[in-house]
């Protein structure tokens, strides 16, 4: 499409463009909100409804590769950013302003949710988030509490989402999220970042009771947490299971997936689309298909067309371009976008995304080129 | 089988049993060697020939979970152990003595091979092996040399293998190995251990020429290195591609696998069975099938029966039990051994192994229980 068409296209989706003001824009009045229509292309694709083009957002789109994000984080620390509603909302909205993505993913961290359960979360610049009191024994698991009120200790999340929802009301949907319990428990057991997660994997096999208690409690709390996010204004909910590949397929299906199913079943009543991302669970698509999610997010380790063939027509797919191609040329990005769009065509619905998060030093103009290519090449 | 049968079975395979002397046993004279026959069950299974039972060995079977290994390493440091032929041979043979496994895997580290190319290898107890001069630019890749003589700087490997071959001549085969080039290059670029290998993955996409130069040189050197191992007495050769899952299937097949194929083609003349282990390359079995290996090693992320169905009858399989089940009960280990043996039956040949390395704190008696269960339950 011509430059003019592209500009109009972007304007229709209320994009402010690169270089948008860093401060949170003044809230729109009810009249303004009532006067325009949210771009719901993302929500339609999640449900398999017809769309005019393929919607796109990116995992970790609100993050360290953005100068605007770096500027915010230069003035505060990570946990303060996550826990201050105005800052979290501002960071959440940045990529919508900058790239014109079709959904905002709430800026937070999967480690915060279990603090009200009794986990002592710390942060250091070199190690990232860690817990000072990791779960290693049945007694440790027994001590954890499931708060009756999901707002206890987590109100900053819902406050931030209310700001986001208000700010985004006439633009794009907000995706709320949590880590899947298996992935959150991995960090609770390891205490900090880990390469092999060997302490966790050992506990699963030699302290099964502790593992089960832990998974039960975290699942219950996570379901409450996500319900509260929908109530606060999240228009879709996503479970990130970045450690799903730590178990082989049979163990994944008996020790991890049942908890995912339980949470998704509890969220059915919210009415918002549910997304599941099981990174590395390559051999369990037939089981994942029926986990209760509306959208299955596919990592870069699978061919999208093969995944679609296994998932069938009752779910939409999200993904799955190689994230590191963002370091390649714009021509190569465009070539791969076309390839991914072609593969996604066979699905009930396709939400374009990366196969994992945006790499840390991705050139901003390449991210923009990818988003633009998706919009341009997918128009019907 | 009865305890007596089991004892005889073990004796037939020249097992010394747990608690074998730590010092290298005195070398057998030629007469003694001539008087008995090597247990070649492993080699037969690699080639798809009939066997009396399923052979078993374990990745990282010579390692930190063994008190006998810890005792050796208490008296020396890691790099000295790897570089001293008598010590490397002693550690290589330990699990044959202790467990009666059907093959010895040479004790070494995949990082040492590229030192003669110009890499400055260091070791620290907390970080493990690392390079002080990582490859980050085309100039860095250009500077690396491919030694004409694979013995230059690596004679300790072949010396150790000669000792092993002599010591093991009437017992079990010796497996020589190297890291696959893609995996070795990952460490050369990162410089040290990494969780996400983000520097490497970036270089692959934004410095393609440097990546290609690096892969070319490492592949050429690795082929020479493995040929020399066969000449020194290795009875089989294995390529460990632990980082194969860092790329999606199409990139894996165009940027990694061609180098594996090139190396395996160069090793055909050695006449020894060739094994390839591509950890995480779950979507590329159809391509891996034709890579030139006699045996495809399958990680725990795939169901063995599904892998066998894709690999067909021109290759044998190795694997693939969940390694962390070694922390579970002996009954559960036995149950899973039976399951894995059943799945392996459909293959041309099956070498029992873990889906990845022996975990660091595995109970020695559970490792023994697994080896015994394989031997007992697989007898025809």
- Span from first to last CA of chain A? 12 Å
Structural class of chain A: alpha/beta
Low-confidence region ranges of chain A? 1-35
Rough outline of chain A: globular
Average pLDDT across residues of chain A? 91
Second CATH tier, the architecture of chain A: Alpha-Beta Barrel
Major interchain interface with per-chain residue totals: A-B, 34 and 34 residues
Overall radius of gyration of chain A: 20 Å
Q: Could you name the CATH topology of chain A?
A: TIM Barrel
State the share of residues found in helices of chain A, binned by percent.
40-55%
Report the count of strand segments of chain A: 9
CATH C-level class of chain A is Alpha Beta
Strand content of chain A: 5-15%
Please state the oligomeric state of the protein chains shown. homodimer
Strand order of the largest sheet of chain A: 1-4-5-6-7-8-9
Largest β sheet strand count, sense and barrel closure of chain A: 7 strands, parallel
Q: Helical element count of chain A?
A: 16
